[in-house]
Sequence to fold (171 residues):
Amino acid sequence: MTLELRTFASPSELAEYLQREADKAAAAVGVHLRQLQEIKSQAEKDRRAKEVVYKLLGRKNSGDDTVRGQEAKLDVVGVLINPDPEQLQTLIEQLLESQQTKLNAIEKVSKSIDPLFREELGGVTISVITSNGVPIKLCISTEPSTGIDKLTREVTVKGDGEKIARPILAR
Fold:
C-alpha cells in the first residue's frame, strides 16, 4: 500500500483528480475484462484439445497434468513458470477485482465529498492523503497560515501537471 499526500488549490481541482483516477480505473477494468474473456476462451479451447488428445490416447484426464504451470515463491513474490490459461484467468480475475474495488472506492469518495464541488471555494487548499490512488483523508485549510500544505513543497509531475506534495526536508 502506498500513501501519498496531494494538495489541490480548489474543490474543482480535487474533482478533476478524482475523475482522472476513476477514468484510469474504469479503463483498466475494461482492459482486464477483455483479457479475461480472451483467457477464458483460450482455456476452454485448451481443455477441449486436451480431452481430444486423451481420447485419442485412450486415457482419462486424471487432473495430474504435467503441462500445468508450476508456481514458486521468492520471498514475498510468487512466480508462475509457464502458466496455463486457468492460472492466467485466476490472475486476471484477481487484478480485475482489485481495479473494480479501487473504482468503487473512488466513486464512493467522490459521492461523499460532492458538497465540496457544488460551490467553488476560493482561498482554500485541499490536501489529500491517498492509498493506492484512493483518497483516505482530506485536510481543508481556509487560512493561509495553517494547513498541511505548509509542511510540504509542491513538485509537478510530468504529464498531466498534477501536483504531488513532498515533505520539506531539513538541511
